Amino acid sequence: MSRAFLPLQVVGFIATRKLDAERGPQVRIRPDDATSRSIGDGELVWVYGPRRHELAPAVYDESLPRGGVVVRDLAGLAVTEIVRLVKLDVDHRPLITTNFA
């Protein structure tokens, strides 16, 4: 099985407060896990969890274990859950025609 399809486990959750300097959704991932999924540092990814999915920027973090991610301010996720990251494709937007508009 390709490494790109191996699941990622949430190993940490960061919840921020209203007055925190850095807040908002974010997912931290090891650089080798990210490159096997073609995800660059700072790129937007869809984070698919068991209950919902959200957009978040991916940030490289060498201190994480392989296959582990830390999420910040992503609702619907808890530690030990399995997530899937899918790179946001901004180059190929869906074509809207008059038939579907």
Q: Would you write up a description of this structure?
A:
The structure is a single chain. With 101 residues, the chain is mostly beta strands. The protein contains one helix and six strands, in the order ββαββββ. It has a single domain, classed as Beta Barrel (Barwin-like endoglucanases). A six-stranded mixed barrel has the order 1-5-2-4-3-6. A hairpin with a 4-residue loop joins β3 and β4.
Short description:
With 101 residues, the protein is mainly beta.
Overall spatial form: globular
For the termini, the CA-CA separation is 40 Å
Task: From the alpha carbons, calculate the radius of gyration and give it in angstroms.
Answer: 15 Å
Low-confidence sequence ranges: none
Strand content: 25-35%
As for the number of domains, it is 1
List the helices and strands and how they pair.
Blueprint: E1 8-14, E2 26-29, H1 31-36, E3 44-48, E4 53-60, E5 68-72, E6 82-87
Throw out a few tags for this protein.
101 residues, mainly beta, Barwin-like endoglucanases, 6 strands, 6% helix
